[in-house]
Amino acid sequence: MSKTDATTEAEATTDADATTEAEATAGAEGTTDAEATAGSGGLSTAPQEELVGGPVLGVIGWARWFWRQLTSMRVALILLFLLSLGAIPGSLIPQNSVDEMKVRDWKTSHELLTPVFEKLQLFDVYSSVWFSAIYILLFVSLIGCIVPRSWQFVGQLRGRPPGAPKRLTRLPVYTTWRTDAEPEAVREAALAMLKKRRFRAHTAGDAVAAEKGYLREVGNLLFHVALIVMLVAFAAGQLFKSEGGKLIVEGDGFSNTLTQYDDFKSGSLFSVDDLAPFSFTLDRFTGTYETRGPQRGTPRTFEAAVTYAEGADGEEKKRVIRVNEPLEIDGSKVYLIEHGYAPVVTVRDGRGKTVFQGAVPLLPLDANGTSTGVVKVMDGYRNKDGKWAQLGLPAFFVPTYAGKGQGQMFSQFPGLVFPALNLGAYYGDLRVNGGLPQNVYQLDTSKMKPFKDDKGGVFKQTLLPGETMTLPDGAGSVTFEKEIKEWASFQISQQPGNGLALTGAIAAIAGLVGSLFIQRRRVWVRAVRGEDGVTVVEMAGLGRSESARLPEELADLAGTLLAQAPTAPDPGPDPGPEPDPGSNPDPDLDPDPDHESADVVPAEGAEK
């Protein structure tokens, strides 16, 4: 029998024995033949069930998956980007929280888009459901990202830098030299040097491990915490803010109560009781303008001199409010927004009785002070028949009259150089008693009739200071007094989150600078005695991020340590083993050239 046949027969016998043993075991334990065959590694023609799909996640598993995705840096950046995109329509589309009149005008001009924009809440972007959802998710994502990293960083601060790797030559920055100093002395010098350079260092085995740049992670955490602070400040400012406007004529005052505002808006959590108690009076408004050159008419000075008092019985104080220099009182800021003119007008009825006298604020139309408004006499006036009536006098005012004799009236300078007032006259019902809001600077003529001039048109007349306009048919007179007052418009705002937002912004910039310009790196110094008894010093560095300054820093550290552990002198080339005194290493220097060392001739009588 050949060797191959013998091997085949042996393998067959072994397989048969293994199968018999498997069947016996299966019979003893009550398993099926298929199971026994499978257990023995054999093949089976029986159908087998196949698993379809992967593991199924339960409610807790899906919750963990969602939390991990939400707290990832990628999702946080996506949410921050979406928040920035969401703020774009809030800047381009008029908002109800800023100016409702502009929103109404926009809706009137875009009737087709208005229903779509209203469903998308584009007129109230910052309080919309979708913007609030992005805002809250970003808030939760940042918190979920910061808390674990903070605990991890605290653990790193409490621990020590890791020990030196076994092979420092594999690190990106490496240097070595030999020195006669003792290894312990080299390690002590390296430890002192690294601590002096503000490294966190300690001795671990035969090496010194050091690490520096922990402020990088501090800056990173500070940046994220500052973002949370800014989000909180933004939310607090929107929820607890209050903002209102008030137009005040020289000599008049204002008290910080809700009924004193011309317009007022507040956050959803703001309470009227949160209004700071204070009051102020506009003593004088001063406006100066450039009188010559190409900048003629350009404003130079806008100042409002006021007398204010904190609380109900506070001491009166003087202060000048300028543009971007508000008056701060108990958390509220009073800004100077706008100014204009308020001519003093006196209205008398047909019997000569004064029914109205006062300064009438007019709204400016251009930079030269051209203004318009209405003088409304609501009480006390009787017409020529003795019946009660109301007067409406449309007014057009220019501080520097130009265009006389040219059929037009305009102002050529914003200062009071040559003031003039043009008045019309209507009588009837001003519709101010119906309870509906009305613009005080516009006249509703639906239930009023004009006074007629000689040509049948609306009675009008241009007056200079001190002149009087006599109404037709003995209906009375209107006098443009020589005194012309100025008015100033103020914005009183209370936003509790501004200081917190500024703090967060400064902290975010500081944290970003730290995370970008501070590098976290590790340095190891190993000193061991070599086989020849000379100390071998190895230094290596590893940065947590790539930086070209790491090789320079390691070279500086190595140079400092080299001064305390200088390089050992070079022993020179190996001379080899010393030659045998009886031998001649150089055959060319043989003193007996006839000597034959290969054949030794024996002496006479010696036995061969």
Query: What fraction strand?
Result: 25-35%
The secondary-structure class comes to alpha+beta
Instruction: State the end-to-end CA separation.
Output: 63 Å
Helix content: 25-40%
Largest sheet: 7 strands, antiparallel
Number of beta-strand segments: 25
Oligomer: single chain
Give the overall shape. elongated
Q: Using the CA coordinates, give the radius of gyration.
A: 48 Å
Compute the number of helices.
11
- Low-confidence segments: 1-44, 582-608
In round numbers, the mean pLDDT is 83
Question: What tags apply to this protein structure?
Answer:
about 600 residues; alpha+beta; 7-stranded antiparallel beta sheet; 11 helices
Task: Describe the protein in words.
InterPro entries: Cyt_c_bgen_Ccs1/CcsB/ResB (IPR023494), ResB-like_domain (IPR007816). Its main location: membrane. Residues 1-47, 558-608 are annotated as: Disordered. Residues 73-554 form the ResB-like domain. This protein has helices spanning 3-29, 33-39, 59-70, 73-92, 100-109, 114-119, 129-158, 183-196, 215-240, 498-517, 549-564, and strands spanning 173-179, 200-204, 207-212, 242-249, 253-255, 263-266, 278-289, 299-310, 317-322, 327-329, 332-348, 354-359, 363-364, 371-377, 390-398, 401-402, 410-411, 420-424, 426-428, 448-450, 460-463, 468-470, 477-494, 521-529, 535-543. The protein has 608 residues and is of the alpha+beta class. The strands form 5 sheets. Strands 4, 6, 10, 11, 12, 22 and 23 form a 7-stranded antiparallel beta sheet that branches. Strands 13, 14, 15, 18, 19, 20 and 21 form a 7-stranded antiparallel beta sheet that branches. A hairpin with a 5-residue loop joins strand 11 (332-348) and strand 12 (354-359). Helix 1 packs across helix 2 and helix 9 (215-240) packs antiparallel against helix 10. Mean pLDDT is 83; it is low at 1-44 and 582-608.
